[in-house]
Amino acid sequence: KRGMSRWTILVVDDEPGMQEVCRDVLEEIPGSSVVCRDSAEAALEFLDSEEPDLVVTDIRMAGRDGVELLQEIRHAVPGLPVVLMTAFPTVETAVQALRLGAADYLIKPFRPEELLAIASRLLEDRRLRSEHRLLERRAQARSAAAPVARSAAMGEVLDLARRVAATDTPVLITGETGTGKEVLARFIHAASPRAAGRFVPVDCSGIPESLVESEFFGHERGAFTGARERGIGLFEYADGGTVFLDEIGELPLALQPKLLRVLQEGCIRRVGGRREIPVDVRIEAATHRDLEAEVEAGRFREDLYYRLAVVRIHLPPLRERPEDIEPLARRFLEQGRREAGSGSLTLEPEFLEALKAYAWPGNVRQLQNVIRRAMALAPGPSLGVDCLPDEILLAGGAREEAGFRARVARFEREYLERLLRECGGRVQEAAERARLPRATFYRLLAQHGLQPQDYRPAPDSSPPNGGR
Predict the structure, then answer these.
(1) What is the Cα–Cα distance from 71 to 79, expressed in whole angstroms?
(2) Per-residue pLDDT averaged across 253-258, rounded?
(3) Three-state secondary-structure class, residue 364
(4) Cα(120)–Cα(25) distance, rounded to whole angstroms?
């Protein structure tokens, strides 16, 4: 069984008959989608928007030949295997192709099993390398994937999530928008035996109704206008892993029986196809809607609801778990710091108190955006209340206090700058004038982002006024 792989194979040949021969052979590989182009230029245009798993190209073509295409691919997509075909073989051409990085070399006319064997071997190598990288990423992400759960409510959520992760049982995650439903779904996947497989999130509200079936289940070539090649759907793509159906309450009523069939029988049928294709996927779904009310209103199938909600996990809103606000804020701060490559940042106590006093109608997602905004506005290495938006300050009654603290901070910075200028950047002398321990003076300088060396005179200048 091929497991989680889905293959896109690009065939480049200016003879339509050879394109069809290659397509017929390569589509025998399970899960493969074959795309044909008639020139190197058309192939490179395709590569600008998509990355196939294998390229099979003729050498002699009008315009740029296959060897030139190979060189372009080596530069643009390192590691992408390329098989060269030619009806005019020479030792020199074969040696040049292999030296330039061709994965293999086929002489026309070739037997179909030759092409099939080469393509299958190269794709299997690619699968093994991909699985190795996935396993490494999963191992690194498992500890970081766990949602924050300092509160008792979230502790119960995570306990249930860990228990259900060991099974293949469908899970329905409910909760307000922004509570972290996809984060919890990813945690369940990462803690499951499917962790090395793909986690495929699908926003059911973001796909046009006319395209939902094709996106979910794929389509055969010629199934509808514009379907020039076979398309692999998201369920087939996630084979061996997890499909996360976000906002499942938005799924069109007409498609719900087909999803129910996948849950019941574990197989799909591509649009325009007749063959049943088995898929091994775990279904997780999420919604902010009351699906029981949707069932009563006739907008959601009752049998599908009970299939999806075998285990139901409700995520409480952030306002009901204030103990999680501080650890969440610190996690988002650390994530933002790593992404920006910046130094250490701290959260001032007043900043945290203002966060805890707010009701968070946008839940965890809103908190993450507030931390990002504060990091962008922070004048120094700490985040204070002056970095918070008005709605949070006013809700916590912190506006007047924030203004006072901002004025104090400006006075403090100006005082430190004046001391450094008068003492020529000599910290010991400046600390003595301020009647502060040297360590405390250094801490204040760091808090305001001041560097003593910026205030030291040039070598040929006279000592500043007041210097000793």
Answers:
(1) 12
(2) 92
(3) helix
(4) 11
